[in-house]
């Protein structure tokens, strides 16, 4: 049975690495933080490394590449615009290209610029149904990525609207970092009456990230992620009270939130 292993790195940036392991034991490693640790996990799982996938070019998502390639000679997949920016990258995925994991499962590339211009997310399809999406630094649990290092918030807005909002509710989010607690604080600051966010914050305090990490679904994001809630009256009212003025459309609300989150 195909499976996903979510690995919390316990690093100061709170990165996740992920492993998608097909039924024959073919393993694909997402965003390896520590190369040796990743190889150890693949071995523990009784699997074989068949590829590394980097969601984008930032060093904290690629630093394990060299060691893994040295030890396994596996291909490294990245965005076409990451060419020359990601060590060892040699296969470049356009929007819609896919990697076959096993006879029933594949990883489908989605072009998702905004956090950087060379950012890919990967949909995990199993038996013809999309089950999950690996979102790198584009979408986090209850938040979205910043645009400080080669990104553009207007482009990120388009990506969230066009590539994520249409996804079905059951789809799981596998983000590049654990920022859930901070993000929930941000949500509750502008929507103090958001019951789902309050419940998640309670649950958050109990989570053992190292041994049993959790994640959200698209349905959860619609409830607790302000960047998915651009039409919330409570949100718009708090932004107005905060002195942000009258925000006339979704894009203005999104850009204002992104600015506020930068200082949060
Ligand atoms: Zn990044």
Provide a brief overview of the structure:
By secondary structure, the protein is α/β, with parallel strands linked by helices. Helix content is 31%, strand content 24%.
What do you see in this structure?
The protein is an alpha/beta fold and 264 residues long. It has one domain (3-262): Ribonuclease Z/Hydroxyacylglutathione hydrolase-like (Metallo-beta-lactamase, Chain A, 4-Layer Sandwich). Helix content is 31%, strand content 24%. It contains eight helices and 13 strands. The chain has helices spanning 35-44, 65-72, 153-164, 180-190, 195-204, 218-224, 233-244, 250-262, and strands at 3-8, 16-21, 26-30, 48-53, 76-78, 91-92, 98-102, 105-111, 120-126, 129-136, 139-140, 143-144, 172-175. The strands form three sheets. It has a six-stranded mixed sheet with strand order 1-2-3-4-5-6, with helices on one face. Strand 3, helix 1 (35-44) and strand 4 form a beta-alpha-beta unit. The N and C termini lie far apart (42 Å). The mean pLDDT is 97.
Give descriptors for this structure:
6-stranded mixed sheet; Metallo-beta-lactamase, Chain A; 31% helix; binds zinc ion; globular; alpha/beta; 264 residues; 5-stranded mixed sheet
């Amino acid at each position: 049975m195909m499976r996903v292993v979510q690995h919390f790195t316990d690093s100061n940036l709170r990165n996740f690495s992920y492993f998608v392991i097909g039924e024959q034991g073919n393993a694909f490693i997402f965003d390896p933080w520590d190369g040796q640790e990743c190889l150890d996990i693949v071995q523990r799982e009784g699997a074989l490394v068949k590829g590394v996938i980097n969601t984008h070019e930032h060093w904290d998502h690629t630093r394990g590449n060299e060691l893994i390639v040295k030890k396994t000679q596996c291909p490294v997949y990245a965005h076409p615009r990451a060419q020359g920016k990601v060590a060892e990258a040699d296969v470049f995925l356009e929007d819609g290209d896919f990697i076959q994991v096993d006879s029933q499962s594949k990883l489908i590339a989605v072009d998702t610029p905004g956090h950087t211009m060379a950012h890919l997310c990967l949909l995990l399809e199993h038996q013809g149904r999309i089950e999950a999406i690996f979102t790198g630094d584009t979408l986090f649990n209850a938040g979205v990525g910043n645009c400080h290092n080669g990104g553009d918030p207007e482009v990120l807005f388009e990506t969230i609207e066009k590539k994520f909002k249409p996804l079905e509710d059951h789809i799981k989010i596998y983000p590049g970092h654990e920022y859930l607690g901070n993000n929930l604080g941000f949500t509750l600051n502008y929507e103090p009456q958001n019951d789902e966010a309050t419940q998640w914050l309670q649950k958050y305090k109990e989570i053992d990230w190292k041994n049993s990490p959790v994640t959200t679904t698209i349905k959860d994001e619609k409830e607790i992620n302000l960047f998915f809630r651009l039409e919330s009256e409570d949100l718009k009212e708090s932004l107005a009270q905060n002195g942000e003025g009258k925000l006339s459309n979704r894009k203005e609300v999104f850009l204002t939130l992104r600015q506020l989150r930068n200082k949060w």
